[in-house]
Specification:
The chain is built from 20 helices and five strands. It has about 475 residues and is mainly alpha-helical. β4, α5 and β5 form a beta-alpha-beta unit. Bound molecules: flavin-adenine dinucleotide (FAD). Flavin-adenine dinucleotide (FAD) binds next to α11, α13, α16 and α18.
Length: about 475
Amino acid sequence: MIVASAPLAIVWHRTDLRLVDNAAVTGAAHAAGGRIVGVCVLPADPYGDVTLSRRRGVDPSSRAAALGAPPGVARSSPRRVAHLLQAVDELCSEWEAAGSTLFVVQGDPGECVPALAAALGVREVHTAPCPAFDERREDAAVERGLAAHGMRLVVHDETTMLAAEDLPFAIDELPDVFSSFRRAVEQSCRVRPPAAVPALARVPEELRARASALADAAMAAPGMAEAMKASDVADPRASFVPHGGRSHGLARIRRWFWETDCIAQYKETRDGLVGADFASRLSPWLALGTISAREVAAEIRRYEGERVSNDSTYWLFFELLWRDYFHFWVRRWQGRAFKATGVLGRTPCGRQDPEAFRRWCEGTTGEPFIDASMRELRVTGQLSNRARQNVASWLARTEGIDWRWGAAWFESQLIDFDVGPNWGNWQYVAGVGNDPRNRTFNVRAQAERYDTDGAYRALWGAG
Ligand SMILES: Cc1cc2nc3c(=O)[nH]c(=O)nc-3n(C[C@H](O)[C@H](O)[C@H](O)COP(=O)(O)OP(=O)(O)OC[C@H]3O[C@@H](n4cnc5c(N)ncnc54)[C@H](O)[C@@H]3O)c2cc1C
């Protein structure tokens, strides 16, 4: 319900770049009688160095020097930045269509968000991050800045398919292994239906003009325009080029579910390496929250009701449970998710050899299956799950290199980078997570099994 006299509230978007089915949007609209605007903060230095310290709350330079941070790894690739900008651009249109507006600024959220909130005279800022270590630190900084002006931060639980409050255990009692988690939640949890966009009040024209000018400036800031240009050029070998933004995620669902019925064979095809349709390819949109996992779950149910319900349709749901598991995992373990010794506190495989690491990143190890995968990642920002497992196992287990270097490289390159799934899967493969199985892969046997005709190795064999 719209209440014209209610004070304005802000929704601070993080990895929830949509209006529909968004707890922060619904919560803010409810609290402020529909009088809400959005803000999205673009990183000030997206291409700065990744340091292994940034999730440890320690001074970055001294910590990085002590650990030997991975050499030459930027925080994001231009391709990942472009995907973010495309998503933000569509989000601006969504806010406009709903009658309100999105402020896009660049800088440190701890400064930008309180400054905007003070300028707009709001009482509350609502947000819905995946509350991992960095995100909590950001929350605390924004909270302090808001409190100085008598305003408050309201944090919503959002990024998972299952709501944290529906789980049959507290987050700090999250089962150590995925199968126990899955059994428990399948017995007792239900996926809530996606929420509609609430009714929003029309904001004054003057506010929209201000927001639009700020967004134009932020999107054209140094580094941003170059990212968009870089993303215009797709390698001809790439069979799938995801464009950021909600409409493209919805189009992918339409195609993969309804136009091609690929979902009905997913369990058989999901280990594929070449082509666009062996898996859903929804991860880039899920990672930035331009579509929600609940929306995908609802679409699976609809497909099962209208077309077919089989092992494959269940398997997609099963994979979304893996995603949830790692989102809860990173909340549970906080700083330990990023420690060399992992959540088990094991002695890690931790050689820090810049030359061997460089060869892995560039795809020049001499092992054809690994090199093909690493070239595909560098050129497209994408990699199948099968290839991710193999290259991670190769780096951490075969070469015995600090697994965090590999996780940092993935964070930098993957368009679908998602903090829990990335760092959690890396711990699993490196043997410092809670995985009961040894995930050392025989990459030659894997290549023979999954790339029988050598098509994948031939495709990415050079360049
Ligand atoms: C070392 C390593 C790093 C990874 N880093 C990331 C990452 O940064 N971001 C990311 O989204 N996934 C990551 N994954 C998981 C998985 O590889 C990708 O989610 C998947 O390849 C994305 O392609 P898709 O959308 O076609 O997946 P599909 O096979 O169609 O699965 C549907 C969805 O389920 C989820 N999912 C599937 N497998 C996993 C898994 N093993 N763990 C968690 N969620 C899963 C994803 O959201 C995915 O979009 C990583 C896996 C490994 C082994």
